[in-house]
Amino acid sequence: MRQAASSIGIQATLALAFVIMGASSAVSADNFGAIAFSKSTGAYGYSYDHQSRQNAEAVAMNECRSRSRGCKVAIWFKNACGSVAIGPNGWGSAWAGSRGNAERAALSNCSKHTRNCKVLAWTCTTR
């Protein structure tokens, strides 16, 4: 009897551990985001907290295309922030762990191609 109760206790503990481990993997899933924009018009679309890169890019493209033609994905990112900066003769994009770092990096990348760069768009995933 005592052995059976002990065995049931161990099985229950293992079952609980699997449930907790399963829940933590669901919680720690990756989040993807993207920014698409049109170089000719400056229209843009963005997305965040999608389960796949493809989904994130599709949503950003659809949002951009609802405003303009000629949209292309400028940046995609996972569990981070993304930013796009534009200037009169070029653009730059970047991703980083924070909005500020992503914006600074996008501005830096843009300034390699043109002057007077400004942040066009940014977004961050929740992870």
From TrEMBL:
It comes from the Bacteria. Pfam families: DUF4189 (PF13827). Residues 32-124 form the DUF4189 domain. Keywords: Signal. Residues 1-29 form the signal peptide. InterPro entries: DUF4189. This is Uncharacterized protein DUF4189. It comes from Hoeflea halophila.
